[in-house]
Amino acid sequence: MSETVYSADDIQPFPEDSLIGDARGHTYSSISDSENISRRPRSYTMSSIRSGLEIVRNHMDRKKFVYLILASLSIYFAFVAAFAPRTSLSRDLRRFHSARFSPSEVYRIYLDTLLVDNKASDHLDNLARTENSFLYIKDYLRKLGFTPKEEDFYPWTNEPVRQALRVFNESRTIYEPRQREALPNVSQDGFHSYSKNGKLKSRFVYCNYCSREDYELMLKKQIDIEGKIHLCRYGRLAPGNKLKNAELYGSSGVLLFNHDDEDGTFTTLNGYKRYPDGPARPMDAIQRDTVRYGSDIFGDPTTPGYASNYPGIEREAPD
Q1: What is the rounded distance in angstroms from the CA atom of residue 69 to the CA atom of residue 47?
Q2: Would you tell me which of 78, 98, 108, 280 could form a disulfide with 272, CB atoms 3.0–4.6 Å apart?
Q3: Can the peptide bond before residue 276 be classed as cis, meaning omega within 30 degrees of 0?
């Protein structure tokens, strides 16, 4: 068996056109579909980028190439500054240019400060001792370096005229509570702002906190609550939300009252005396509040979505 030996001169590179030979007269046949040719793919990213840059350089001069790079970087940084999260690069850029904080940033800094130094209990004690809480808050803001601005608003509120509550057994009155505590400096009867005017006489039913869970439990136990006055204890829900739930479940009226369980540790069972001799709640205490649907409308319900900042502003009907 004979063996053919090839020299280096006999090895020819693969031509650009497989049908045409080189200058030496060599002829190459074309690659048929039946032949299996495997080529190594390019896997180096930097080589690809370098090749791309070479192509760009070959088609434009150096000055245009530099302008293109600078324009691309400018577009990139402008995009990042505009759409980056407020707590990252955009915030740092605003600080660099001495720009003001956005409201969300001020709110975040305020909450972070409360985690470190919370003086809420001190403020509550000071507010309880001062006669004008507005002036106290205003002076404290000035100490912090703020410049408080005073503005007048004219919200619509209803005022109490006469209140009465009686519990009947048939036609006989068996209970009629006081409408004002027997305490000094109490000048107004018990009243809930934005409560509806009118008279009501109906049977009543105890509904705990008047929460959705309470009503679902009563319906499950087949307790008749339709068309009755619902007795709701304070706590867990805002008074307006209690009334909203009661209206949804068919009440004719709502009576809110304080329960000893909501007084925390300052109760007579824990050895505390009742006010004014101690911190415990008086027996005839009446809580004043608002029954506005705060979860639906913020502020003045007669001007939803805008402020009542002058007397003759257009209002919606209170009812």
Answers
A1: 19
A2: 280
A3: yes
pLDDT of residue 213: 94
Residue 29 has pLDDT above 70, yes or no: no
Residue 66 — very low, low, confident or very high, per pLDDT cuts 50/70/90? confident
Query: Which one-letter DSSP state was computed for residue 271?
Result: T
Q: Which two tokens stand for residue 161?
A: 């005229």
Q: Are the CB atoms for 256 and 195 separated by under 8 Å?
A: no
Do the beta carbons of residue 203 and residue 231 sit within 8 Å? no
Question: If pLDDT is split at 50, 70 and 90, which confidence band does 30 have?
Answer: very low
Query: pLDDT: is 157 or 245 the higher one?
Result: 245
208 CB neighbour count, 10 Å cutoff: 17
- Please tell me whether the overall predicted TM-score, pTM, comes out greater than 0.70 for this model: no
Angle between helices 239-248 and 212-220 (to 10 degrees): 30
**Over 60-118, what HEC string results?**
CCHHHHHHHHHHHHHHHHHHHHHHCCCCCHHHHHHHHCCCCCCHHHHHHHHHHHHHHCC
Which tokens belong to 189? 């009867």
Alpha-carbon distance of 217 to 211, in angstroms, equals 10
Fold of 167-290: Glucose Oxidase; domain 1 (3.50.30)
For 163, 216, 262, 275, the CA distances from 179, given in Å and listed in that order, are 7, 33, 21, 18
Q: What does the alpha-carbon distance between residue 68 and residue 225 come to, in Å, rounded to a whole number?
A: 76
Spatial separation of the C-alpha atoms in residues 291 and 254, rounded to whole Å? 10
